[in-house]
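REQUEST ID: PR-0412
SUBMITTED BY: lab tech R.K.
PRIORITY: routine
TASK: structure prediction, single protein chain
INPUT:
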Amino acid sequence: MTAMAEQTGIASAGGPLIRNISDTALWVAVYRARETERPDAVFRDPLARKLAGERGEQIARSMQFGERHAWSYVARTWLVDQMIARQVQQGTDMIVNLAAGLDTRPYRMDLPRALRWVEVDLTPMIDYKEQVLSAEKPACELTRVRMNLSDVDARRRLFANLGGEAKKALVISEGLVIYLTRDEVGMLGRDLAAPATFQYWVLDLVSPGLLEMLQKNLGGPLNAAGSPLKFGPEEGPDFFLPCGWRPVQVDSLLKTAARLKRLSLGMRLVSLLPASNGRQGSRPWGAMCLFAKSDAATNQ
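STATUS: complete
OUTPUT:
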């Protein structure tokens, strides 16, 4: 373990396996590493294993529910990759990755050199990531911003500045909104809708039914780490309409994992149920959603 890792507290040993929300990035990186090591991998992240480290493996092995549903993380990563690639082809010149964690897309994806990629995350996370990836070179223009996104004034200033520098920006908040309250998600949505050049937003969404299941099966260590799971709106993707965002693509993680052949037999049978992208109620449902800017933002 490096002195930098010890200083940041991201990858150090001792104490509970998950001590804060940043430790979940190590956990998710394990699933990207495992997919990469498959001969039939649907994406390859050669840096994931180095970033996850042994602590990431320890966390993953301790989260048995997550182990059984690793397919959801594979599907999520693959879907976001596809959405980014299409948006870049359609003229996106800036990508703003909120709570970027240990994402390595600027290094592993085929991206234009002129594309601006901005990662926003907490200082310890960025310090750890920069130390581990110090010898790596990104494919595009990569900038990192050390910021706590709960600082509303600071993030609004950042969004305004980035909006003024972009022509067409895509925002990514993969694995973020589930840790926020309804009010916090609504405010974030309105803040992101404010800059005219922030045109698209990618995020993952769960139903109330899946949120309850995740709280039951994963909530213990996350709650103990001060990172409880909170957001699974009854409205589904339509929750974001009053915030200024309309859903233009909603991809079920289960259906996607079935297409990618990452499901067990039992889950393959479940995936045959009819698709539904509206209100889900108690039905366990998770999806990656692409939203486009609309004119419906309100101050509610």
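NOTES: Confidence is low (pLDDT under 50) at residues 1-9, 296-300.
REVIEWED BY: pending
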